[in-house]
Structures are given as C-alpha cells and as structure tokens.
Amino acid sequence: MGGVSSKDTLAIIIPAYKDSFLKETLESLCSQSDRDFNVYIGDDNSPHDLESIVRQYYGRLNVRYVRFDNNIGAKSLVSQWERCVDLMQNEDWIWVLGDDDIAESNCVREFRNSLDSTSRGHDIYSFNTTIIDRHGVIISTPPVVPISETSVDYAYNLLLNKRANCMSDHIFSAAAYKRNGGFIHTDYAQGADWINTIVLAKDRGIRHIQNAVVLWRYSGSNISSLAYTQKAETIKGFLQFTQGVLDHFSYLKDRESSVTFRQMSDAALWNLEFVLTTHYRGIDLRNILPILFFIKRRFKRSFWATFKILVAINSKAPRLKVKNLLHRLPFLLKVRNQT
Fold first, then answer.
1. Residues 6 or more apart whose Cβ sits within 8 Å of residue 249
2. What is the C-alpha to C-alpha distance for residues 62 and 108, in angstroms, rounded to an integer?
3. pTM of this structure
4. What Rg do the C-alpha atoms of the chain give, in angstroms?
5. What digits encode the pLDDT tens for the residues 42-59?
C-alpha cells in the first residue's frame, strides 16, 4: 500500500457491507482534487462480492481491503467502525466514510486548507451535509452554521435540530480518538455519531468547513432508514445517547458557560421527543415503560407530565394513534402505584 507525503496524513476508513453504492463512494474519492490519503475498507463479512468492486480501484487509490471472518455490524456497528479504524497505519487524521455516501471533489483539499488556516487548532473538522435518497435526489440541504464553535454550543444546537451530523461528515484527530479510548458505543449506533462528535470536540471545539459538502444517503436500507421498523431494539440505543449527553455535560452544573446544564437538559428532552416522533415514528407497547421511566427519572418530570409527553409523541407520529397509549392506562396506573 502506498504512503502519503504530506505533513498531516489522512486515513479514509470505509466500514463496508452493502454493494449498492460502494462504487459511487470510491469514485468520489478518485475525483478528489487532493488525492493525498490512504483508504482502508473493512468488509463486515458481507454476502456481496465487495472485493471485486474494490479491486477496480487498486492503482487508482492507495487502498487496503480486508474481509473480516465474522459480521458484527448488525449488532454492534460501532465495534465495526473501531475494527476498521484499527486497520490504519499511523495517520494523523481519521475520516469514517459510509459505504453509500459521497464526498464532493474538493473535500480533502478544503480539509487541508482548514487545517492550515486554523494552525491545526481543532480535533474535529466538519463538512456540510446534504441528504440524498437512494436515487441521488436531494432530500435536504445543510443549515447555515458558524465557522467554528465550542462543543457546548455545537451540542446544544445539534439537539435543537439546528446542525446536521452524520459519521461521514467530519474528520477527527487520531490523537483525540486514542485519548478517548476509541468510540462511545450505543446499541445499533443510535446517536453514536452525535455523541462521538460532541466528546471529541470537547477540548478544542469544532471547525465547520464552509465550502465542501458530503452527500449522506438515506437509502432505505441502512440502520438510520430502518430504525422505526425495529424500534423495540433501536430506541434503547438512542436513550443511551441521551443519557450520554446528560452525563457528559454534567460539569456545566458547576461552571459558567454559554449554555447552562438546565438548558442542555431541556434541549436533550426536546430532541428525544422530536426523534421519537419523526425518526422512530412513535412508541409501541414494548417501549412505553422504559421511555416513561427514563424521562421521569432523568429529566425529573412527574408521572403525569411524562405520560402527556408520550401521548403527544404518538398523536403526532405517522400511522400511530393516541389509543396505543390510552389502552395501557390501567396497567400504567397499576405500575405507578407500585413505584
């Protein structure tokens, strides 16, 4: 595998499983105006012949392909990310790029320009994110963001849906990754991209690269697209994310900041309600009690206030009705009286 010559070396990590768009992803790397990077592809024991696709790019990219003996991404996608990162050599920067996402041709160049202009003053450099569907049609464009911001301000705005974030839209320092002992894990990687960006940006904030875009594909076959179909399993992961945010920012209770802990907590609750309504499309019977007790305990809401939140979520969610909760009211009252 070829090396790179620049002072700051870059590893582009592709945790691969699907074959539908992998060629488009690799073509977007071939089109980079700055080709000074190494590519590492970790095949999560895919049923597809990914190697035949990758083989077409030997000589065009500095690429190393490894097929793992077992599939772990289905149960622990973050573990798959980590073992793919372990394939890299000693590069200074890490870019985990989805196997169906696309980098515009100026992404690497603008990343290096940002490194130089900031004297490498951040551990996270983030691209704008445009969401596309499986046909490449744009679903949404990125919001306007400042050039840089603290982890606190970034997290607060992210929770209020004023920032875009996915695993593919940022490059982070390998040194910061090692200091943090790898990634923070959540079940089915729910909110894992968010919490890891927040934590990695804690010490030196985040730099937003203004004029380069990553196209994140909402394909209908990735975990994000299908989370609502297996919400009994995946919602737990998002509760872990929410708890991770509250734990991480607990230091704000004793420190002056642009955002207080109470404001961060309120934003986290707003975000949880929004995601349960839109992303998971409501709450089913298997999730009612865990979510109810989570909100009641973590956000210090009364039983009735929490119950009203859950009713409101299902009243707004697509294809779900309030009666899904109301039918459980006698049982919930019984549980309440026992706690």
1. 152, 155, 261, 264
2. 14
3. 0.89
4. 21
5. 999 999 999 999 999 999
- Which tokens belong to 132? 């596309």
What tokens does 43 get? Answer: 């095949």
Give the Cα separation of 324 and 287 in Å (integer).
11
- How far apart (Å, rounded) are the C-alpha atoms in residues 149 and 34? 26
In CATH terms, is domain 10-224 a member of 3.90.550.10?
yes
Q: Which of 80, 95, 83, 87 is nearest to 9 (CA)?
A: 95
Q: How many CA atoms lie within 13 A of 170 on its CB side?
A: 26
Q: What is the pLDDT of residues 209-242, one digit of tens each?
A: 999 999 999 876 555 545 556 677 899 999 999 9
